[in-house]
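WARN retry 2 of 3 for item q-0093 after timeout on previous attempt; input resubmitted unchanged.
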Amino acid sequence: MIKFERTSVMNLENAIRGARNPMNSWGRMDSAYDEDGNYILGPNDLDLAKRLRRAGSDHRKYVRQIFVSVDITAPLYWWKEYDTYKVATVANSTSTMHKIHSKPFSIDDFSHDHMTPETLAFMETVVGRLEAIRLKYMEEGKNKEDWYDMIQLLPSSYNQMRTCTMNYETLINIYYARKAHKLEEWHSFCRWIESLPYAKELIVAAEE
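OK item q-0093 returned
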């Protein structure tokens, strides 16, 4: 399971203007904001952006200036893989260490969409045990041994939300590295990438 909320794409106008700096071709800019505040690339700017994108990383520096912010909720086993992307990414997460005890455990706190019925039934017992430990922790003075029981028993399917920022260059790297990954969460991530403004042209670089 993976969920994307509050996606925001920023600085497209400045990135495209910067892409014209090397040739001083600002006079050819033909992009503008629509009535909803979206920056719409005109034919000249879109053609330049596509040509630079396909020319390689040395020429597409402007995509590093297109920023994305998004709240992602995903299981810890997916975050472990995402954390390999340390360059040009920032993430602030909800705190497992400090807030693990702050609400009752339920099965929906965990990714279980691909579990077989037998495994799901066992998972229910794990969740029940975690909740029993949590209640003991809250009722008996927050003993550290109970806290450790929760932290060390917690399955990697536990869902955590993080607010992430990255840029289009980073998303290019992620998209082509992960689009054929065995985890369904990565396929969902790539579909989210494809939904971003001008992703087809600037990230995927799909042929017309």
